[in-house]
């Protein structure tokens, strides 16, 4: 089959199910079979980046909002989860109300009040879902109602990521510059056990599929059409009587939610979260993956995020002291040759249009 | 018109349900050990059947720390080369697997895991920032492998799986304070980068100052990498302390010392005692801005000993006459020899055997004799106060009487009670 019919097929309902089925087989079947425990753990980490990328694909690719600060929401999810894991570890060791180990080293003897509720798993998960989303809605309303857009929005969101990282560095009760690490248990499961590490991979893969499903439904809905319309001609949409700001806020909040969930999965997978993983540079890396994959397509951001992370690991393993040059060249080459990202590679092949297809 | 979110709700629900079902099924089928249960020990994959044995060298070769950590990589490579030339370890040639930590804690954790689980190295050498060590620590503990960490740090740690060959606080900071007190300093000003090492160091300095009647006139922190110092330097100047204790790291030192010289402060009227400035950094700051200032380390290129002469000569022969040797490089070089000596003593590369044999293993290092303390996994070190001179090198102006026993939790100091208290 040439690429064009494949694309057509994937747009049908059967095609969608086939696509998800294939992805599920690869993620749940092939990957665990073919990859060593260590590589599977890495893939789980990359999948977390891909989950963030799906959100950016929605907000930036479909909604035109260049979200240069997704590290903020990623970090919120990650720190919220990390707080719960540290609390659970401390309580498992020393009973209720115990102070996490890193605080003892920092000279904090009393558990700060805002930490206490995070010993509850339900509260933690609720906060991971609600807090970043609510923050994004408030911020989005404040920004988009004032019609801040384009480069101004990008600068604002990036500044936010920088400020957030600096804020965290100053918080000794959140681990400061070192961040939070050394987690023993994940909701009662020992993280050091390879079997549980595989379970975390499955959770990450499942979340990725769910997030892609949600993004797909949003794209195909009336709302999805409206979002693209706002991206391409915001004034016209406004003249038609829609509130363009609300349309944007929804996409921005969904992207924030995805990033937060990704952060929450990232923490048990990687075992550390620190301001270095959520500031300006990581936020740009998120965007880069999406740009390379193809921001406007559904699967492009996922492929791009996975490809960028994989290339970074593979190149740095091969050329430990020169990989950054190779990576830079790769980025330049892709953006110069494929401005639409990896996802546009199919469209580069000229497809002969049959008269029937053209008429349809 | 209100915004209507008309989703094909049924489709979405189906897809989500299907995903949840698959994930739930696969995830629960794959459940492992729960909290409190004994985890099966991870099998080591270290292969010692051949003529070679692999070790990891994990340093930041890119990012902000690259300038410092590449020098450590060179020192590790030199030690391995020398050991191989002398017949290897247990008759086996040591082979380095190099990885880039990229100045990021998560990358350090990732690469450490790769070195242990994929490359099956017998030990890993490297790490610099405390953040990178904290990120790697659980990896080495969970996989039961060994890390040799070569940089002075804030203490309050002792992992079975890490050997700390840099100074802990009682081998660097406390001797520096003793020296200042001896020279009649009665008030100090603290300047540091905002992360764990300066904060812990300053907590110790405050406790020391209180116990020894030294007045702390100010305590300022800047974000790592910050280069804006006019406010702080002016505060330092107007506070009029007898000395400044500097725990800044990296680029901030350049801006700090330039501003310090700029407002007319000199080493004569207000000396600065630094704990993160070595031979490598002096060039970047500019000798004219820092001449006469003090540093506290365990090793300088100018240390006068046969072992050091040999080390400096070998290093310059390998990497060029313009290169300098510094404390972390020397500690990294020493760490490879300590590992080799421990393996020879144990007669085995196995982690448990190396841990059991470590106590009392010694090496005639460029800084003097170092001995591993089996309880804390730290080493004995000679403290040295150095003065920066016009040729850009540091010269010892004071040194401790022999090597100091490591005391990472400061248990031997009454005034430090409560600092390292983790009960």
Automatic annotation (TrEMBL), chain B:
Record InterPro entries: ABC_urea-bd_UrtA, Leu_Ile_Val-bd, Peripla_BP_I
Signal peptide extent: 1-29
UniProt keyword Signal, yes or no: yes
Record keywords: Signal
Pfam families reported for this sequence: Peripla_BP_5
Alphabetical GO biological process terms: amino acid transport
Protein name, entry field: Urea ABC transporter substrate-binding protein
Organism name: Glycomyces albidus
């Amino acid at each position: 089959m040439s690429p064009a019919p494949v694309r057509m097929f994937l747009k049908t309902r059967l095609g969608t199910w086939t696509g998800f089925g294939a992805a599920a087989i690869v993620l749940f079947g092939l990957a665990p079979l073919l990859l060593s425990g260590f590589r599977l753990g890495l893939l789980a980490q990359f999948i977390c980046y891909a989950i963030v990328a799906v959100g950016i694909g929605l907000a930036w690719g479909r909604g035109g909002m260049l979200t240069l600060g997704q590290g903020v929401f990623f970090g919120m999810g990650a720190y919220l989860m990390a707080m719960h894991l540290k609390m659970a570890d401390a309580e498992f060791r020393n009973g209720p109300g115990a102070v996490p180990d890193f605080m003892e080293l920092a000279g904090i003897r009393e558990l700060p009040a805002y930490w206490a509720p995070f010993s509850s798993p339900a509260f933690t998960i609720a906060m991971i879902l609600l807090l970043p989303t609510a923050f994004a809605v408030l911020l989005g309303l404040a920004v988009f109602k004032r019609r801040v857009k384009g480069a101004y929005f990008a600068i604002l969101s990036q500044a936010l990521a920088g400020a957030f990282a600096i804020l965290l560095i100053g918080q000794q009760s959140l681990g400061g510059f070192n961040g939070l690490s050394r987690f023993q248990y994940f909701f009662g499961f020992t993280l050091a056990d390879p079997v549980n590490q595989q379970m975390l991979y499955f959770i990450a893969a499942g979340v990725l599929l769910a997030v892609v499903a949600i993004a797909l439904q949003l794209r195909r809905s009336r709302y999805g059409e409206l979002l693209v319309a706002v991206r391409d001609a915001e004034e016209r949409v406004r003249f038609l009587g829609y509130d363009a700001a609300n349309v944007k806020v929804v996409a921005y909040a969904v992207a924030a939610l995805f990033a937060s969930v990704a952060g929450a999965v990232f923490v048990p997978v990687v075992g550390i979260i620190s301001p270095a993983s959520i500031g300006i540079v990581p936020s740009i890396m998120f965007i880069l993956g999406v740009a390379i994959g193809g921001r406007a397509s559904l699967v492009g951001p996922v492929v791009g995020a996975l490809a960028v992370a994989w290339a970074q690991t593979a190149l740095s393993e091969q050329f430990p002291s020169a990989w950054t040059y190779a990576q830079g060249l790769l980025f330049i080459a892709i953006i110069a040759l494929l401005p639409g990202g990896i996802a546009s590679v199919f469209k580069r092949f000229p497809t002969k249009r049959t008269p029937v297809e053209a008429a349809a | 018109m209100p915004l209507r979110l008309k989703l094909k709700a049924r489709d979405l629900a189906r897809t989500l349900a299907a995903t949840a079902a698959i994930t739930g099924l696969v995830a629960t089928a794959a459940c492992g050990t729960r909290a409190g249960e004994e985890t099966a020990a991870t099998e080591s994959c270290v292969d010692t059947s051949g003529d070679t044995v692999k070790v990891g060298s994990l340093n930041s070769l890119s990012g902000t720390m690259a300038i410092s950590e590449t020098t450590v990589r060179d020192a590790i490579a030199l030690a391995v080369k020398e050991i191989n030339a002398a017949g290897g370890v247990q008759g086996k040639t040591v082979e380095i697997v190099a990885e880039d930590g990229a100045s990021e804690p998560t990358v350090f954790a990732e690469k450490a895991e790769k070195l242990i689980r994929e490359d099956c190295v017998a030990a890993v050498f490297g790490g610099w920032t405390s953040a990178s060590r904290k990120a790697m620590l659980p990896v080495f503990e969970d996989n039961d492998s060994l890390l040799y960490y070569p940089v002075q740090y804030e203490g309050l740690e002792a992992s079975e799986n890490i050997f700390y060959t840099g100074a802990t606080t009682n081998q660097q900071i406390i001797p520096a304070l003793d020296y200042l007190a001896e020279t009649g300093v009665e008030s100090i000003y603290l300047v540091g980068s905002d992360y764990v090492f300066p904060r812990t160091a300053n907590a110790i300095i405050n406790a020391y100052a209180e116990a020894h009647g030294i007045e702390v006139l100010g305590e300022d922190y800047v974000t790592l990498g910050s280069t804006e110092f006019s406010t702080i330097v002016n505060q330092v100047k107007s506070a009029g302390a007898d000395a400044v204790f500097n725990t800044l790291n990296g680029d901030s030192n350049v801006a700090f010392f330039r501003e310090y010289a700029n407002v007319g402060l000199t080493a004569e009227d207000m000396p600065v005692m630094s704990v993160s400035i070595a031979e490598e950094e002096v060039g970047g700051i500019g000798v004219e801005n820092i001449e006469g200032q003090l540093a506290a380390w365990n090793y300088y290129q100018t240390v006068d000993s046969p072992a050091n002469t040999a080390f400096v000569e070998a290093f310059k022969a390998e990497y060029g006459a313009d290169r300098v040797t510094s404390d972390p490089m020397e500690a990294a070089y020493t760490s490879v020899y300590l590992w080799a000596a421990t393996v020879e003593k144990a007669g085995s590369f196995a982690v448990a055997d190396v841990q059991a044999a470590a106590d009392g293993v010694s090496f005639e290092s460029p800084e003097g004799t170092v001995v591993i303390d089996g309880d804390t996994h730290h080493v004995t070190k000679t403290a040295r106060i150095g003065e920066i001179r016009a040729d850009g090198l540091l010269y010892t102006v004071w040194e401790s009487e022999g090597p100091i026993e490591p005391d990472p939790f400061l248990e031997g100091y009454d005034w430090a009670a409560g600092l390292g208290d983790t009960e």
